Automatic annotation (TrEMBL):
It is found in: Mitochondrion inner membrane. Component of the ubiquinol-cytochrome c oxidoreductase, a multisubunit transmembrane complex that is part of the mitochondrial electron transport chain which drives oxidative phosphorylation. The complex plays an important role in the uptake of multiple carbon sources present in different host niches. The keyword Hydrolase does not apply. Keywords: Electron transport, Membrane, Mitochondrion, Mitochondrion inner membrane, Respiratory chain, Transmembrane, Transmembrane helix, Transport. It is a single-pass membrane protein. It comes from the Eukaryota. InterPro entries: QCR9, QCR9_sf. Gene3D superfamilies: Cytochrome b-c1 complex subunit 9. SUPFAM superfamilies: Subunit X (non-heme 7 kDa protein) of cytochrome bc1 complex (Ubiquinol-cytochrome c reductase). Component of the ubiquinol-cytochrome c oxidoreductase (cytochrome b-c1 complex, complex III, CIII), a multisubunit enzyme composed of 3 respiratory subunits cytochrome b, cytochrome c1 and Rieske protein, 2 core protein subunits, and additional low-molecular weight protein subunits. This is Complex III subunit 9. One of its GO terms (cellular component) is respiratory chain complex III. Belongs to the UQCR10/QCR9 family.
Protein backbone atom coordinates (compact mmCIF):
# COMPACT_ATOMS: atom_id res chain seq x y z
CA UNK A 1 0.00 0.00 0.00
CA UNK A 2 2.75 2.47 0.92
CA UNK A 3 4.67 1.56 -2.21
CA UNK A 4 1.54 2.15 -4.31
CA UNK A 5 0.96 5.58 -2.75
CA UNK A 6 4.57 6.53 -3.28
CA UNK A 7 4.51 5.50 -6.95
CA UNK A 8 1.18 7.17 -7.68
CA UNK A 9 1.27 10.34 -5.57
CA UNK A 10 4.76 11.16 -4.32
CA UNK A 11 7.29 9.93 -6.88
CA UNK A 12 7.07 12.89 -9.28
CA UNK A 13 7.29 16.50 -8.13
CA UNK A 14 4.21 17.51 -10.11
CA UNK A 15 1.93 14.87 -8.58
CA UNK A 16 3.41 15.54 -5.14
CA UNK A 17 2.56 19.24 -5.52
CA UNK A 18 -0.98 18.48 -6.67
CA UNK A 19 -1.42 16.04 -3.78
CA UNK A 20 -0.31 18.68 -1.27
CA UNK A 21 -2.58 21.35 -2.79
CA UNK A 22 -5.62 19.07 -2.82
CA UNK A 23 -4.88 17.94 0.73
CA UNK A 24 -4.59 21.55 1.90
CA UNK A 25 -7.86 22.48 0.21
CA UNK A 26 -9.73 19.57 1.81
CA UNK A 27 -8.18 20.29 5.22
CA UNK A 28 -9.08 23.99 4.99
CA UNK A 29 -12.69 23.29 4.06
CA UNK A 30 -13.06 20.73 6.83
CA UNK A 31 -11.49 23.00 9.43
CA UNK A 32 -13.73 25.87 8.32
CA UNK A 33 -16.89 23.79 8.73
CA UNK A 34 -15.83 22.44 12.12
CA UNK A 35 -14.88 25.85 13.54
CA UNK A 36 -18.13 27.41 12.25
CA UNK A 37 -20.15 24.69 14.01
CA UNK A 38 -18.23 25.23 17.25
CA UNK A 39 -18.64 29.02 17.01
CA UNK A 40 -22.39 28.72 16.43
CA UNK A 41 -22.76 26.26 19.31
CA UNK A 42 -20.84 28.49 21.74
CA UNK A 43 -22.81 31.59 20.64
CA UNK A 44 -26.25 29.98 20.41
CA UNK A 45 -28.90 32.65 20.91
CA UNK A 46 -26.48 35.54 20.38
CA UNK A 47 -26.11 35.53 16.61
CA UNK A 48 -28.31 37.58 14.30
CA UNK A 49 -29.79 34.54 12.60
CA UNK A 50 -30.99 33.31 16.00
CA UNK A 51 -32.56 36.58 17.18
CA UNK A 52 -33.68 38.35 13.99
CA UNK A 53 -37.28 37.20 14.43
CA UNK A 54 -37.46 39.42 17.53
CA UNK A 55 -36.67 42.56 15.52
CA UNK A 56 -38.43 41.95 12.22
CA UNK A 57 -41.93 43.31 11.85
Amino acid sequence: MANFLYNVLFKRSSTFTVTILVGCFIFERGLDVITDKIFEQVNQGKLWKHIKHQYET
